[in-house]
Specification:
Order of helices and strands: HHHHHHH
Radius of gyration: 19 Å
CATH architecture of the domain at 27-107: Orthogonal Bundle
Distance between the termini: 55 Å
Oligomer: single chain
CATH topology of the domain at 27-107: Flavocytochrome C3, Chain A, domain 2
Structural class: mainly alpha
Number of helices: 7
Length: 122
């Protein structure tokens, strides 16, 4: 009986820790709100009833090429690669708005870390 108690106690603890971690993630929508943007900027309506489209990103982010330029120092550039260059991928395929981002590259690859490389002098 004690084993089951400790098993469920540990499972509850781990589940709670995961839930708290998920709550603290910053989603795309949160980052936009923190910069003072209203829902209507992305959703094109004051009281959104549908998801924002990938095209709604372009007025502020200019183009995929411009975004790729801002991430050019990453070890693997998530905005300039064979998937982006050869398909009709949309910003919202990765940037999920009110959910955690999803890396489209992970459908075929695993282990990519989209982080800036340290300068050689560091």
């Amino acid at each position: 009986m004690k084993k089951w108690f400790w098993f469920f106690a540990l499972a509850a603890f781990l589940w709670t820790g995961t839930a708290i971690t998920e709550e603290k993630k910053s989603f795309t929508a949160d980052r936009h709100k923190d910069r003072g943007l209203s829902c209507a900027v992305c959703h094109k309506e004051d009281q959104p009833t549908t998801a924002a489209s990938g095209e709604s990103c372009l007025p502020c982010h200019t183009s995929l090429e411009a975004v790729a330029g801002r991430t050019k120092d990453f070890a693997v550039n998530p905005h300039q690669n064979h998937l982006v260059d050869s398909s009709d991928i949309s910003c919202t395929d990765c940037h999920q708005g009110h959910k955690a981002d999803k890396v489209a590259c992970d459908s075929c690859h695993s282990g990519f870390k989209f982080e800036r490389q340290k300068a050689e002098s560091e």
